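Bench log. Compound arrived from synthesis this morning; before running ITC I wanted a structural hypothesis for how KG4 sits in the protein. Inputs:
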Amino acid sequence: MRVLGIETSCDETGVAVYDSTQGLLGHALYSQVKLHAEYGGVVPELASRDHVRKLVPLIQQVLADTHSQGAIDGVAYTQGPGLIGALLVGASVGRSLAWGWNVPAVGVHHMEGHLLAPMLEANPPDFPFLALLVSGGHTQLVQVEAIGIYRLLGESIDDAAGEAFDKTAKLLGLGYPGGAALAELAKFGNPERFVFPRPMTNRPGLDFSFSGLKTFALNTWQAQGQTGDEQTKADIAYAFQVAVIDTLAIKCRRAAQQTGLKRLVIAGGVSANQHLRSELLRLAQEWGIEVFYPRLEFCTDNGAMIAYAGYLRLQQGQQEPLSFGAKPRWALMAHSSVRTNIN
Ligand code: KG4
Ligand code: ZN
């Protein structure tokens, strides 16, 4: 089965073709980052319009590159969560193409896409596994029994990890989205200078809270008289980053102990963070746990994860009717065939 995947939930237009016997045949991504940079955040209307401009040419390109014209057996598009206008571009184009080609269409949950992205790698994890999803909109610990059988173990009660990275980066004057820029700056930070708290680690449970870290960064910055010196910025970036990573690590270990699971998937935009990747690999080895990451380009939003998740859903016989819609708010658990929150 050959599946065309379309991702348009936020500010990246992603397209890919996944083939069940040959694997990922090709993928392409157009990032709108430059378009939104001058506004300091994603402008939803501009995002939708740009998806309208870029999506069809990108599909044509990927179909041609993968010699898939006339060979697509199903179309998968991100149905939610995300920006309503942006989602509707992918959903309407995806549903229409499927109708025109007389093949099934399936709406994919964006976080399920992230969750399954490590399956595209050479050494994919076996079910069941623990998943830490760390993106711009979500921070969740999920017990994954099988495709579509998810249990939410914990999640952020306020800012997502990526959101906290972006907000802290913004206050340090690093632009938007600043997560990767903050990580770069942190490389020059003095590990001894500031110590940030590890929120919600001194009480039981697997929920997270990251909004206080951003405030802590702001207060630290102001306490230095906002001199604007680059070393202070780097030192704050380091202390912030290491606090987020430590907090995530503590909760991962707790979740592994609680569930007895020995495999940990880490996915979503923040899983592109090199310090997080190496630190969790090192710690997990100590804990006797195997860690699985997507390759860097599939940590952040992309069409490949949607094509793959869509393929698995289509294979299970799931498909959309001719009518279609988008779900800007859509809990992953509402997409699970078992709806138990063990929290
Ligand atoms: O998964 P993603 O592309 O989009 C959402 O589904 O939200 O995640 C984007 C988030 C942003 O907050 C971005 O700043 C963050 O991932 N991010 C990073 C890094 N690369 C992207 N955060 C920390 N370090 C990075 N290297
Ligand atoms: Zn995402």
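What the model suggests: The chain has a mean pLDDT of 96. Residues 10, 135-137, 162, 165-166, 177, 179-180, 183, 268-270, 272-273, 300-301 surround KG4 (ligand 1) (CB under 6 Å).
ITC booked for Thursday regardless.
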